Amino acid sequence: RESFRCTVTSVSQEPALCRNCHRRTKDQGPKMVSKVISFDEVVKTSIETFRDTFGCDPDIAACAPGRVNLIGEHVDYNDGFVLPMALPMVTVIVGKKNYTPSTCEVVTCVEGIREQKKAQFDSSSLARGSPKWLNYVKGVMFHFGQSIPGFNAVIHTNVPIGGGLSSSAALEVATLTFLELLTARKFEKPGDKALICQKAEHTFANMPCGIMDQLISVAGQKDRALLIDCRNLTVQQIPFEAEGLAVLICNSNVKHELSSSEYPLRRKQCQQALQLMGLKSYREATERSLDGRSSTPTGIGSRTHTHINTLQVGAKIGGGMYLRIFG
C-alpha cells in the first residue's frame, strides 16, 4: 500500500468568510478545508462498518491505489506510452463469503455519494443499474470469467471521488483482487488484470477509457513511476525518488465524471484523425505524416495528434534529471 511521498491539498470552492462581517465573499479566494484521511482510518472504518452491518468480522481484505499521470494524456488509447505513478491513497474492500450460492450484499462508506449506500444483487445475473458506484463492482464480476459465490463486503476509499485521480480504476482493481482472494483464482500477469478492469469500465460504466489507470493501479510500486507501452502492455519501473523530492497534488474539489465529460469526444476525434491520415495507430505516424493535417474538416486540429515524447521524459526521470523536465 505504501507508494510515494505525496502532499494532497484540498481547496474549497465556497466563498471565504469576511473577517469583519462574517459574510461570504468571493474576494478572498479559496481556503484549505480538508485533508485526506489516513489508510489506517480507511481500514478501521471499513472493518467497523462490516461488523456493524453483518454482525461478524471480515476475513478478506484487498486494496488498490489511485494514480497521478506525469505525462501521456489521451495516449493510452492510441497505443502510445504513458508515465503515471501510483499514490498512497487507496480503495479498500473488506468482506467474506456469506455461504449463499450467489447473493451478494455490498456497502460503501464513502462520503459524498448521494445514491443508496447499500445494495443486494445476484452474482449469477449481473446487469448495469443503480446505484452507479456498484456498476464498477458488477462489471469486474461480470468479466471475471468464473462463477462467484455469495459474499458480503464493505468499500471505503481516501481517493478523492471525481478528482482526476482514478478512483474508478482503484475500485475496479480492488474488486478484482478481492475476487481473487474470494475464489482462490490468481492472475499472474498485471496486464490481464488491467484488461478485465478496463472491460468492466467500458461495458458497465459506459466509459471508453484507455488502459493506463487500471494498469498503474495493478502494477504501481513505491518510489517508482511506471512507463507503460499501451500497445503490448509491457511496463518499466522508473526510479522516482531523490532527497527533497515530493509530488504536490491540488484537489480543487471540482467534481467530474469521465463518461459525461469531453473524454469520449477526444477519443472519437483521435480515431477520426487516424482515419484521415490512413493509419491504424499513432505509433505509425511521423512528423511528415502529420504535415498538412493541422486543420481538418472535423475541426480536430494538430492539438489532437501531437504530444511530448513520453520515452524521453521517462529516460530523464530515470537519470534523476527532474528539473530539466518539470523545472
Question: What does this 3D model show about the protein?
Answer:
With 327 residues, this protein is of the alpha+beta class. It has one domain (37-326): Ribosomal Protein S5, domain 2, CATH 3.30.230. 31% of the residues lie in helices and 24% in strands. It has helices spanning 39-54, 132-142, 167-183, 190-204, 212-219, 263-277, 287-290, 310-318, 322-326; strands spanning 6-11, 16-17, 24-25, 32-34, 60-71, 81-97, 103-108, 118-122, 151-157, 224-229, 234-239, 247-251. The strands form three sheets. Strands 5, 6, 7, 8, 9, 10 and 11 form a seven-stranded mixed β-sheet that branches. A hairpin with a 6-residue loop joins strand 2 (16-17) and strand 3. Helix 2 (132-142) crosses helix 3 (167-183) and helix 4 packs across helix 5 (212-219). InterPro entries: Galactokinase, Galactokinase_CS, GalKase_N, GHMP_kinase_C_sf, GHMP_kinase_N_dom, GHMP_knse_ATP-bd_CS, Ribosomal_Su5_D2-typ_SF, Ribsml_uS5_D2-typ_fold_subgr. GO terms for molecular function: ATP binding; galactokinase activity. One of its GO terms (biological process) is galactose metabolic process.
Which keywords apply here?
9 helices, 12 strands, globular, single chain, Ribosomal Protein S5, domain 2, alpha+beta, 24% strand, three-stranded mixed β-sheet, seven-stranded mixed β-sheet, 327 residues
